[in-house]
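Supplementary Note 3. Input sequence used for the single-chain structure prediction.
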Amino acid sequence: MATIFVLVITILGCIGSLSESKLVQDEVDALRHIISRMGLKYWRFDDTTCQVEMVGVTSKPPSNSESSIECDCQFGSQTCHVISLTLKGYSLSGVIPPELVMLPHLQHVDFAYNYLSGTIPSEWASMQLKSISVLANRLSGEIPKILGDMTSLTYLNLEANYFSGNVPRELGNLINLETLILSSNRLTGPLPTALAELNILTDFRINDNNLSGPIPHFIQNWKRLARLEMHASGLEGPIPSGISYLLNLTELRISDIHGTIQGFPVLSNMTGIGFEEL
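The predicted structure, written as discrete structure tokens, is reproduced below.
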């Protein structure tokens, strides 16, 4: 027989004092909508502590699950605002909630390792999010072009979903992006040249897709790149010699390349590489 457990979404850290502050009612209402849309039916929320208790029927919480709300209470009128929301590893089977737009101060979203379906809502385009992780869900369709409007993003992880179609050129608008992970989807077509504008990327992963066309030479312009994974991406050789200019690389995986292979770039000057798979 299943047992009742109480799962407390803890606070990663509250900025400012909570002793005389509380979350504004609009954000309390928004959290109710969000939790409901994501398939969590049993929960309690304390707006004076930014703490949520969710009561569900199950044998035990998932061992690798993580849940948290982070609030910022450095606002006037004794109010707090949600700035970070994590519901990770709970096998939630709802949809990605458009109601996040009702949390105007939200910066970080992590819904990894669930069964969420649909896609990233167009409503999110107006938000000032800095990081989005929907790793290992069931999102499908084309990667939304509206992501290109979210120029505050520094981290975007869409890995292990069912996204298909071309990588949208609009992602090249994300000039503050440091991490872009599109691995393990069903993406096709060439990498758009607009990605050349992502000059501060440190982590780029596109492996395990069905892309086509050559490995783009503009990768050599990503001088800050520390991690590059393109194995089994569907891209074609040769491997650009300019990769040897990426002196900050510590991890390089670029095997299973289609087409012509005209030798590997000289990597002897890339002394920081701790792992390479060519």
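The radius of gyration is 21 Å. The CA atoms of residues 46 and 52 lie 6 Å apart.
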